Amino acid sequence: MRDLLLHVVMWVAVSTTPSSSFAQGTATPEYQLKAVFLFNFAQFVDWPSSTFPAPDSPLAICILGQDPFGAYLDETVRGEAINGRPLAVRRYQRPEEATGCQILFISRKETDHLPEALDSLEGHSILTVSDADRFTSLGGMIRFVTEHNRIRLHINLGAAKAANLTISSKLLRPAQIVSKGGD
Known about the structure:
Elements: H1 4-16, H2 29-43, E1 45-46, E2 59-64, H3 72-77, E3 81-82, E4 85-92, E5 103-106, H4 114-120, E6 127-130, E7 142-147, E8 150-156, H5 157-162, E9 166-167, H6 169-172, E10 176-178
Parallel strand pairs: 2-4, 2-5, 5-6, 6-7, 8-10
Antiparallel strand pairs: 1-9, 3-4, 7-8
Helix pairs in contact: 1-2
């Protein structure tokens, strides 16, 4: 597992580098940074062993709806493994397709359907992430909040525990802990 400090340095580099210097230039610097966060979440969350069909099954980072990352998320996780599991990126248009994911980023464009999407994932050990307004208050687990040109995390710990996920204190320390209805 990579050291947290290394990733902080990467976040700073990504957030201060113009998007034109990246391959394809498809993701904005904001979403390049969020892609690195998603990769880091995979390192600081524990899933029940029953989440994976086999010991060598990949850890799937998925996107529901419009993909703001372009190829950047794929490039970020290419060749990486967490606890011996390769990382895979998948994209879906309907929440019921995403039940095999471990991390699910729900596009801001899905705001009108957030309650239904989150309800359809209930009972699955899927870390739900979004930058949509009120995401954690609706039962999502991690919300990216941009304040003063910095990305902050709001974490609904109750939602994570209900999904049998354990979030490391290393991820919780810099985050604001919120509860359903309190984002």
